[in-house]
């Protein structure tokens, strides 16, 4: 009987030790509660740990108190400390496993964070790669060769075709830049076709670059230099000069046309700049449309009352390269060169403005000053071209879209390609005008409208080109 009682007492001590160890383990777990307020517990059948909700915390504390009350001596405390150490070790193992999981996640997401673009396309700072730059540069070189062919064709093709050998001899007869004044073909090349070809290059470059600048500064895909009243202002001043001042020479037309274009743009910009927002693209377009309508009505009123002025004006109004001498080319050259220098500065400016005014300001751009700089370049380029050759349509409207299709949204390349594509189109239109109406000719403004309208219709069907 005594042996049975001893067995019962040993069993009771074993149960008390187990209860105390369990209470100590829960105490260690409660003291290391995570910030979310949940106690980890095992998920049955899985061997994993899941958080216990805050609602179960009272049950845990009750078990803890029960274990503390049944504590009876140092051996139980030692067992409690061992159990707590085991729990801490388990926590460390879980933390180590978590670190391994995080590390594995970092390793798995590493390749996704890397730039997935082809290094041959974009370099580490996001600039165009060498391959793309070389490709666009090769495209410019190719367009330069096409322009050279168009120039040679412009000197050789006309009502009277002239062989290329005679064209070359007209520039190297007795040395460089000499010709035979007694030779009729030499006179045709040097006195008639050379000035109109050079003027076609200058006017084409000016109109193409001015159109790209206008579309960039207004962020309007249908913008051309005429939207700022350049053509309307030049026409009104020219009609006034013919009717009131009696100007009859083409040289006089150039200066009055340029002055009218400049005054019109200054007035339109002043109107658009009123208000807190300044000269926004929308206000520029609206002010330009209103000014165009007003100047057109005034020009029509003058022409109706003066038939002589109308007869002189209509020759300029149609837009032509014929009949212009080297004096017009010499007068237009410095203005167009100055405008092109300004346009070179405007490439980065337009790239910033194309991101929107707020983002451009966050990049450190002074939007008002930048927009004014672009408009000055437009006035100089388009005003000079319009004054010298008359209002020639569709060049400044369609050519920038073709350039954008080739180069993408970078205005530095758009301006460069527009400067080559526009004179190619203008000289081609001039050559076609001589051929299709032989022995007469169609003025270049008529041919560019015929060629430009279908081209622009095809371009606007590509909807992504209209997103500036």
From TrEMBL:
Gene Ontology molecular-function annotations: transmembrane transporter activity
Alphabetically ordered keywords of this record: Cell membrane, Membrane, Transmembrane, Transmembrane helix, Transport
Subcellular location: Cell membrane
Main location: membrane
Compositionally skewed regions (Basic and acidic residues) per UniProt: 1-18
Tree of life domain: Bacteria
Membrane spanning stretches: 134-159, 197-214, 226-247, 253-272, 284-308, 328-351, 372-399, 411-432, 444-461
BP-aspect Gene Ontology terms: siderophore-iron import into cell
Membrane topology listed for this record: Multi-pass membrane protein
Region (Disordered), start-end ranges: 1-128
One Gene Ontology term, aspect cellular component: plasma membrane
InterPro entries (UniProt xref): ABC_BtuC-like, ABC_transptr_permease_BtuC
Family matches, as Pfam families: FecCD (PF01032)
Family membership noted in the UniProt record: Belongs to the binding-protein-dependent transport system permease family. FecCD subfamily.
PANTHER family per record: FE(3+) DICITRATE TRANSPORT SYSTEM PERMEASE PROTEIN FECC-RELATED, FERRIC ENTEROBACTIN TRANSPORT SYSTEM PERMEASE PROTEIN
Protein name, UniProt field: ABC-type Fe3+-siderophore transport system, permease component
Species of origin: Actinoalloteichus fjordicus
